[in-house]
Amino acid sequence: MIELLTKKLLNTNLEDPDLLLGTERYKSNKILPEANVIKIGGQSFMDRGRKAVFPLIEEIKENLPKHQMIIGTGAGTRARHAYSVGIDMGMPTGVLGLLGTFVSIQNAKMIHYLLADHGIPYIEPGGFSQLPLYLKERNAAIFFGMPPYTYWQRNPEIGKIPPYRTDTGCYLISETYGTKNMIYIKDEKGLYTNDPKKDKNAKFIPKITAGELMERDLDDVVVERSVIEMMTSAKNGRQIQIINGMEKGNLTKALNGEHVGTIITSN
Q1: How many CA atoms lie within 13 A of 191 on its CB side?
Q2: Is this structure's pTM higher than 0.90?
Q3: Domain 31-265, CATH homologous superfamily name and number
């Protein structure tokens, strides 16, 4: 079977449907099946400062002996300001993506310094080959959530805002490494039918599939829509969980596999 696939790869157009179907016969290897990717929201969490971040840091420290954590950071309000200025100056989507990346890096480094007493490293894309070692030695590592597309960001269907931002970058790490969980830490209970900060009648959705969510086409979604789209073709990252990090203990419950907040599955 592998010889036949090799022959096709060498002699067939890489977009040939039969060839692509043949690659599905080989199951993806889950590289870090015991790890958990945790995304700390930018505007929803980091921008709240000490009152939000410090209790979460303590909960992360409490879970270090029991759980492997790959911690990513959002960009938040400062990135939105950078986008605003960049758009006003006529910058293209790829440049805006680069500006947002640097804000995500700032947040990642702040989390890194707050966990420095436990020896938790901050890594950039070039250092991800060392990630298994860091998890083995320290049970955690920190990275910036923005995917490193920068200039290579595709243009969105409407407007200029980079379509693949920090929620997407963190999800892609979970999908690539085949991690146990993908947990998004926000300042809301999870997914609602509308933004609960603006609509008091918004209804909480505890569980839903990516397909169902796309069909609903809600005006406000708690994670980037690109994550939901990617989940429909996921090989490993077939579930994400959104929790309210402002409530102490929610992260611990999610790491322990409890249904807290909203769970979105591929199907």
Answers
A1: 25
A2: yes
A3: Acetylglutamate kinase-like (3.40.1160.10)
